[in-house]
Amino acid sequence: MSRSTVVTLLGLVAYLCLALNTSLMAPFFPIKAYEKGLSRLQIGLVSAAYSIATLVASLFMTTFLKPRDMYFMYFCGPLISASCIICFGFLQYSPNGLIFCLFGFICMFICGLGGATHFCATLAVLCNVKKEWEQRMGSLLEAAFGMGMVMGPPLGSLAYKMGGYTMPFVSAGIFQIFVISVIRCLMTLKPIKEAPKPTNVSFYLKYMTKPFILLVMISILLSSSMFGVIDTIMSPYLNNHFKISEDEIGFVFLAFGTTYSLAGAFFGILVDMGHGGRVFFACAFCLPMSILLLYFCSTIKELNHIMFFVVCLGLIGINVAGAFIPGYLLVEKFAMEYGIEDPNEAKLFTAIVITMIYGLGGIFGPVIVGGLTFGFLGFEKTLLVQFISLCFGFLCIIPMVFRKRILKIFLLESCEK
Q1: pTM over 0.85
Q2: Which pLDDT tens digit goes with each residue over 144-198?
Q3: What's the CA gap between 242 and 224, in Å, rounded?
Q4: How far is residue 81's CA from residue 17's CA, in Å, rounded to a whole number?
Q5: Plot region of 128 (φ>0 → left; ψ -120 to 50 → alpha; else → beta)
């Protein structure tokens, strides 16, 4: 195996750590934070801090991004992220209430900034290392992120059982520092070719407000909010209702992460075959139906069994993957339709838009739905609110069916090979 292959594979592992940083705390953090005196809204704010940082980075950082900065961002980002996730692990020794909330938010926000810098540079750096993998690097990174979503909850539960609250975060941080250090020792720093010139924020806002780009963005945003919703409402409900301990909840979350990862790989193949629009449409419809099924499982006595919840989480994982993954290509095609002629510029625009959407979804899910709604209305009514929001996301893409030219772009017929 060549050195470039080893470096690329380790780069995928480093990218996987971005998902681990947030997914590993899903089984136990909401319960622990509630014990430390935080309200549901405060728990949502701490959980959303990573996404808020991602949103800030997507709006401003790429405006100043230059090729000569790529390596610095690639290696500096994980060190910042890992240091903050380790500090987050020692918050159990902080005073209860507002102090815990404030320091938790700051740690996760800075961790998110570090993760965002690494995210912005990863594709360019790894494509420069392994040029023959350039065409499939995007799908490999998506698969690595999916694996992080799968591994995070069970590993978090296992580490929590072995060493308490601090162990999962310290282990993840040390592992991330080790991986990026090995990459730096092995990687030969080749000059990166000039990327598209940085453009001011107004340029992106001009195209983000185009009707059909905006509608696709809203639909993707509401679908991506499911990550935050699941993280903030499921573990307290499973702990209170089924008496499942924090060190076992992660294995229930495995259903969501596993199906998301496997479905993401399958849907990626369908997108490459030109069926991205059809996958997006079908999963945008099925996602609210799977939330409605979860609502019935929580309210109907005969269905109120842990195995039904596991099945529902699996269905949600499949539909979130299908409603999120084709979005990249849809936004890119609509951007080119609306006048961004340079393909590289369209790809940069799309990367920024998707990062921003993911950040907004990460705020809407844990803060608005998982914080405010769950705190005031409880688990069942929160599911109904999420069902209504996802139905609105599906309705946003209905107008595309009635415009022949737009429908052709939406179905990605031009992607057929």
Answers
A1: no
A2: 877 787 788 888 888 888 888 899 999 999 999 999 999 989 887 766 555 445 4
A3: 27
A4: 10
A5: alpha
